[in-house]
Every structure is written in structure tokens, then in C-alpha cells.
Amino acid sequence: MLELVGMNHLASRLIGHLSGGEQQRVAIARALAQEPEILLLDEPTASLDPRARISIMSLVEEIHRSRCLTTLMVTHELKTTAAVCDRLVLMKEGRIWAQGRPEEVLREELLDLLYGG
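Predicted structure:
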């Protein structure tokens, strides 16, 4: 699995000596090693620099497509997510606010209502 997530070359390094993005790749590899039917990710790009965010999102998209693996992700990264997700569900106060394809859901007027803009 480390090879799949691009971490094979760092296999002998302690997890605490890895960057945030590298640690996230290891976490994804650990999840995939369990051969899940659904890959559930909670804020996989939180606290990562912009380059690492894009890299992780690209990895998630590649895993989803190459393995035909249902992938659910909780995130606040709307711009990055829209580029890699087929469907979005926006929630507010624990309830579904909007759902659909990114171009349907990420409309300015809808986001203004959601975020009180």
C-alpha cells in the first residue's frame, strides 16, 4: 500500500519524522490495507500546505477511480473538492443544505445563503 500512496521510499522512517502530507498518505495506506468497501476520510487536507492539499486530493481521486472505491470525505475545502468529487453534500447545523454535482451546489447565491454572506 505504501507504493500506491507514493511512500515506499520512506517506509523505514518513523511516522513522527514525516511531514503532515506524508503522514496523511500513510493514514490512507493504512485504511486501504484493510480492504474497505468505503473509504471514509475526515478532513484529509486539514493543516496541510496548499501543495500538499492538492497532492492528497489528487491521490484520493486516483484511488477512487482506479479501485472503483466509494469514497466519502468530510472537508471544508470546497474549491479543491469540487475539482475531484462527482457529488457534494453541503450541511449546516447537522442537516443537509444542498446536494448534487459540484456545478449545481457551488453556486454563489447558494453559498451566500449557507454561510450568511
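Summary: The mean pLDDT is 92.
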